[in-house]
Design goal:
CATH architecture of one domain: 3-Layer(aba) Sandwich
Helix content: 40-55%
Shape: globular
Strand order of the largest sheet: 6-7-8-3-9-10
Structural class: alpha/beta
Order of helices and strands: EEEHEEHEHHHHEHEHEEHHHH
Number of strands: 10
CATH superfamily of one domain: P-loop containing nucleotide triphosphate hydrolases
CATH class of one domain: Alpha Beta
């Protein structure tokens, strides 16, 4: 289920004194099975871009083709697109509202007009897939859960729709390190189990380097860079000019190279870095 974004532009408050260009002539392609990372400074257009991918926002110009369907066309049924493209906003736990977990997770599937049997199956599978015990948690109020559990329930509600594309806007924001790592491991499992494409927006360059196949770098509403993470993070000077950092290990290697030590670029793991440093010292 590929995604093709063609020259999209989006202007907030168009024609008004406070007019602001949020996206300008953005184009890219996402293949089936891709784990896509999107990075950029605050205000670079990342969240606006995400909301175009499932039709929450319409571009002022350009096209977005999802699975062969132009979702920017006037007669496109957006309900059909949102069955295929699931969007998890930042702090999704604030969107929980039902009296118990199973009812909250069932909200989306019910709106698809599925049978009760199918809804129950999807709710159980989704709750288990995000790492929670269905029997223990199904009757609990979402508001009695921990922050990490609430976020998992919110994500379960999206994946219960069985989207082919799962879009996540800063999914680990505000979580402690343990919950952060566990949630990302869960997202990898979801990618492998349900969604053919995962789109991850994150400020954590370590996560982007570790997880993604391809990275988009947004700056001032434009697509500044697009490539594999090894190539993106080899551009330390360019990223620094945009106010962006490097993964921890990559940053170390970058500083060593600036000091005249011949080490490779695009290295993310401590093991690979240790091997590269040892080679340089020899």
């Amino acid at each position: 289920m590929p995604i093709e974004v063609r020259n999209i532009t989006h202007i907030y408050s168009k024609g008004m004194p406070e007019e602001s260009v949020a996206l300008s002539d953005v184009s890219f392609h996402v293949d089936d099975g891709c784990f896509l990372g999107i990075i950029g400074h605050t205000g670079s257009g990342k969240s606006t871009l995400l909301q175009h991918l499932n039709g929450l926002l319409k571009p002022d110009d350009g096209q977005i083709i999802v699975d062969g369907v132009d979702i920017t066309a006037p007669k496109t049924k957006m309900v059909d697109i949102r069955k295929k493209v699931g969007l998890v906003f930042q702090y999704p736990e604030y969107q929980l509202f039902e009296e118990d977990v199973k009812t909250d997770v069932a909200f989306g599937p019910k709106n698809l007009g599925l049978s009760e049997e199918e809804i129950d199956l999807r709710v159980r599978e989704s709750i288990e897939l995000v790492g929670l015990n269905y029997d223990e948690i199904k009757d609990v109020s979402p508001f009695d859960l921990s922050g990490g559990q609430k976020r998992r329930v919110a994500i379960a509600g999206v994946i219960a729709m069985r989207p082919k594309v799962l879009i996540l806007d800063e999914p680990t924001a505000g979580l402690d390190p343990k919950a952060h790592r566990e949630l990302l491991d869960t997202i990898v499992e979801i990618h492998e189990t349900i969604s053919s494409i995962v789109v991850l927006v994150s400020h954590d360059m370590n996560d982007v380097a570790r997880l993604t196949d391809k990275v988009l770098v947004m700056e001032n509403g434009r697509l500044a860079m697009e490539s594999r993470p090894e190539e993106i993070f080899a551009e330390g000077d360019a990223l620094e000019e945009m106010g962006l950092g490097l993964p921890d290990v990559t940053g170390l290697m970058y500083e060593l190279k600036k000091c005249g030590i011949e080490v490779g670029e695009g290295i993310f793991s401590p093991e690979a870095a240790a091997e590269e440093i040892a080679k340089a010292l020899r």
